[in-house]
Design brief:
By secondary structure, the protein is mainly α. The chain has one domain. The chain contains 13 helices and two strands. Strands 1-2 form a two-stranded antiparallel ribbon. The longest helix is centred in the first third of the chain and has 30 residues. The chain is globular, with a radius of gyration of 21 Å.
């Protein structure tokens, strides 16, 4: 019984061990500024991981999330600039938020097409989302013509870089600081994580997601709309990837058809590190939170240790491989 629960306990132990290790080995890791930096760096990734969790729970995979994030950020920024130049009298709220909404809705349509191809046509999700990734990347390059867009919505810059503070405290030198500070981008991520947790835990759709991932044939025989459930999950994944891409635009201060290298592997790694099964039916948002934070701590901690940038990739790849081996091994144990 304990062995069967190892995939639930192991991510928490890994998180605790890494946090303790880097706290003891480096002086700057456990500082307030660095912990806030970890939250800022991984909040958009957490939003993207929400959608990946839904897809993995059904036993599928989405390789288009990185491209979807890029194209959504580019579309939101391009439309904002178009409105400023062509329709300067547009109210500020509409000029800022209409492009964001359009980019997210467009991503949802893209996700619906992916879901249709996977659930109705029968194209394997690996190939369907890989093709979608190429299409989205090409579209982003076509819009930007390879050049970054530097004029972005002020609201995105605010969310991406600013924080909300509580309990203002005075320093000995007379300056003040907030004892508790939470980045706005982290608040946005927390709202998405909470909403997804509620959906998976308390709604019929959430139960259907687990049922489809646990045993698709049994789910279909019991009357669960398997194809519709898969399509909705891919829609959610594309839309959360779009939101993440838009948040990254706010944090980085520009939109471009690149600059998010390795986001796909980081996101999937975080979800898998948290213990969500690659074969569907097991895991959830709690696992995703632990996994994304673990991955973020590992990445940040290696930077503090001044690990060679090339070697760092190899170390993170080894960690991912270990998580995959554990994931597959636990799936075999549960079947035994």
């Amino acid at each position: 019984m304990r062995l069967r629960n190892l995939d639930t306990i192991a991510p928490i132990i890994t998180f605790a061990v890494l946090f303790l290790f880097f706290s003891l080995i480096t002086e700057s890791f456990l500082t307030r500024e660095n912990l806030l930096n970890i939250l800022r760096q991984n909040s958009a990734l957490a939003v993207m991981a929400v959608g990946v969790t839904f897809v993995l729970l059904t036993g599928e995979i989405d390789l288009s999330i990185e491209a979807m994030a890029i194209v959504a950020g580019v579309v939101a920024a391009w439309l904002f600039n178009f409105i400023l130049k062509q329709h300067p009298a547009t109210p500020a709220l509409i000029a800022q938020f209409a492009p964001i909404l359009a980019a997210i809705i467009g991503a949802g349509v893209f996700g619906a097409l992916i879901g249709f191809g996977v659930s109705r046509v029968g194209v394997p999700s690996f190939m369907m989302t890989l093709a979608a990734s190429l299409i989205a990347t090409g579209f982003a390059l076509w819009i930007t013509e390879g050049s970054p867009i530097f004029t972005i919505q002020p609201s995105l810059s605010f969310i991406g870089t600013k924080s909300i503070g509580f309990f203002e405290t005075a320093r000995p030198n007379g300056t003040t600081y907030n004892l508790i500070e939470i980045p706005w981008i982290t608040i946005v991520a927390a709202l998405f994580l909470f909403a997804a947790w509620v959906v998976l835990r308390y709604t019929r759709f959430g139960r259907n997601v687990y049922a489809v991932g646990g045993n698709r044939v049994a789910a279909e025989l019991s009357g669960i709309p398997v194809k519709r459930t898969l399509t909705v999950c891919f829609c959610i994944c594309s839309m959360t990837a779009a939101v993440a891409g838009i948040l990254w635009v706010g944090r980085l201060g520009s939109a471009q058809a690149g600059g998010l290298d390795q986001v796909l592997i980081q996101c999937v790694s975080g979800v898998v590190l948290g213990g969500t099964s690659l074969f569907g039916g097991r895991g959830g948002i709690g696992n995703t939170v632990v996994g994304v934070l673990t991955f973020g701590i590992l990445h940040n901690g290696l930077n503090h240790l001044d690990v060679n940038i090339y070697l760092k990739g190899a170390i993170m790849g080894a960690i991912l491989l270990a998580a995959l081996i554990l994931n597959v091994s636990m799936a075999r144990v549960r079947k035994a």
